[in-house]
Design a protein that fits this description.
14% helix, eight-stranded antiparallel beta sheet, two-stranded parallel sheet, 183 residues
Length: 183
């Protein structure tokens, strides 16, 4: 009987030491409890304490992707999910637009980080120039960010055809949008 009690106490202690997953931690394959293999039909169980808002377009034959918004019970928008296929409950999530600044990588990078913070933590994979934004990719964590071209020096703002290097982006440039992309 004594060994049974000791074994039971040991089991309870070991099981209580299990590390809980941080609901705001982002990595290459997950953001909080959402993973790169989570299907749309499983979102309600993944976000059991939050609200899942699905926009359903008018016609399933339009081919439009229907974004899914995740809200805290208090009403704050946490993230916007884009499924791989529109109106398919078995579709996995293709990309996540991170809205809430509590989401962070293991290196402490958040939506509110500056360009310098991200550049110092991760290697830049590519910089794409568009009409109004730069798209900066960090493949090590499947993240890309948009930086408004208003953050750039005047001579770099108006020509989407010029190549922009990381050294031309100011250290204090703010992140406009923060995405995790799953392929």
């Amino acid at each position: 009987m004594k060994y049974l009690i000791q074994t039971l106490v040991l089991f309870v202690l070991l099981s209580s030491c299990k590390k809980e997953q941080d609901p705001f931690l982002m990595s290459k394959q997950h953001i909080g409890f959402l993973t790169d293999s989570t299907q749309v039909k499983d979102l309600e169980s993944v976000f059991i304490n939050d609200s899942v808002s699905k926009y359903i377009g008018g016609d399933e034959f339009t081919g439009n992707i229907n974004d899914i918004e995740i809200y805290e019970k208090g009403g704050n928008l946490l993230m916007v999910l884009t499924p791989s296929e529109a109106l398919d409950s078995t579709s996995v999530i293709k990309s996540v637009r991170v809205i809430d600044e509590r989401f962070k990588t293991s290196k402490g990078i958040t939506f509110k980080s500056t360009f310098k913070d991200i550049r110092d933590a991760y290697e830049i994979s590519s910089i794409q120039n568009s009409l109004s934004n730069l798209i900066v990719s960090f493949n090590a964590i499947n993240v890309y960010v948009n930086i408004d071209k208003k953050e750039l020096p005047e001579e770099l703002r108006h020509n989407p055809d010029i190549k922009i290097d990381a050294i031309q982006i100011p250290d204090n440039a703010k992140i406009k949008n923060f995405y995790i992309q799953w392929y």
